[in-house]
Specification:
The complex is a heterodimer.
Chain A lengths: L3 H12 L4 E6 L2 E5 L13 E4 L7 E4 L3 H6 L8 H14 L2 E3 L2 E6 L4 H16 L1 H24 L6 E4 L10 E7 L2 E8 L2 H16 L5 E6 L7 H10 L2 E3 L2 H15 L2
Parallel strand pairs in A: 9-10, 10-11
Antiparallel strand pairs in A: 1-2, 2-3, 3-4, 4-6, 5-6, 7-8, 8-9
Chain B lengths: L3 H9 L2 E7 L5 E3 L2 E10 L6 E9 L6 E8 L7 E8 L17 E4 L2 H4 L10 E4 L6 H11 L5 H4 L10
Antiparallel strand pairs in B: 1-3, 2-3, 3-4, 4-5, 5-6, 6-7, 7-8
Classes of the chains: A alpha+beta, B alpha+beta.
Chain lengths: 256, 162
Amino acid sequence: MMHIKKVIDFLHSKTKKEFDIYERSPEKYQLILPILHEDGDMVDVYLQDSPNGQEYIRICDFGMAIMRLSCTYEINSDARQRIFNNILINSGVQNNQGNLYLDSTLETLYENILQFTGCVQKVCNMRHWGTETTKNVFYDDLKNYITIELGQFNPAPNKSPLLDYPIVSVDWSLTHNDRNLYLFGILGNNKAKVAAIALLEFQKAHIPFIGIVVHEDMDILGKKERLYLTKNADKQYPVLDDFKEKAVADITRLAA
Amino acid sequence: MLTDEEIQYLIDAPKKITSKHPTKGYTEENGHKRCYLELAGISADGKNFSIFINQNNTFQENFSIGLRYKTKDKAFGSVTLIRYNGSHGETRKNQDNHYHQPHIHRLTAIETKSGSTDPQEKHRKVTGKYNAFEDALTCFFEDIHVQNHFQFFPELRQTRLL
């Protein structure tokens, strides 16, 4: 069992009593810290016995971070789940049914408390990361793959195939065997609609092309948007990894 | 960018709940229970609001009930106007030697004009209006003038205990 007096004395010695401990309920000790969220509320951190042995103290939050996050943000897509997982993994923090935790020895408790609170603050501020990070990472990854790995297909960005309708453009134009392949990276419903309209316009203009769509995550699109793209694209990849795995072989075959 | 008067107007505007998720009770996951409400302003010219209600399973006095307003500004999106919190820990001891008190967060013009497109409800005030979760819910619905909350929370019809 954790010797709470030893823990209190240790933290007081390390922090000149800036940290305090309050027994919120039997054997669940809340840390009183001068570490706050953006709205001025204290970050919720608790100490309790670790099931991994007497030499460990469990730093945890009893689900408070995810509860706070859920007020304004849902982890409801693969991309968001990946970001959440990365935050935890990179901080050395684990998740047991919403309870974030980190087991620490007494000697490293102070450093691990700071590590844990940093992780909690990142989780609680995931809304800042979600949209921009996911968007930027996907389009950057797609660009890097196309320019580095698909050089043989002469990739050209932002091409407008219809000379009298330059507003309709493609993300990437590729060529193989004198055949044009027009590629769209899709993240979100709005981009899906724009791509579907472009594909329809090319068909209306009777220009020969092969339409390729690469999704950041096909599952998050609406039903209508998925239908538009399925009806008008020649080839779709539900996630970027799928495209990376098959692009060269598929482009060679499609443009044979 | 909302002024303090506009924020107060939105909080005071009569509202009605148009939907609740889940339709009955609460969702329980990740160590807490929660539900989400959509509301419409009755006199507030088609303004749309939502409410989040969360309560921790381990510490039931740790809850958060908030009113969000869907602005028409794309940059801002939705903002939380006011949030009723239970006692979840303070950095200073209260006079009764406890580290926690119920308190109310509120958005102010200082934050809406700060330049952030995600202004936070930094203004905090300790309150004696409620202690338990159900009392806070009743108080919250009354204070923000929701007219049909008993339809969705019939358990609140019981007399408030204070």
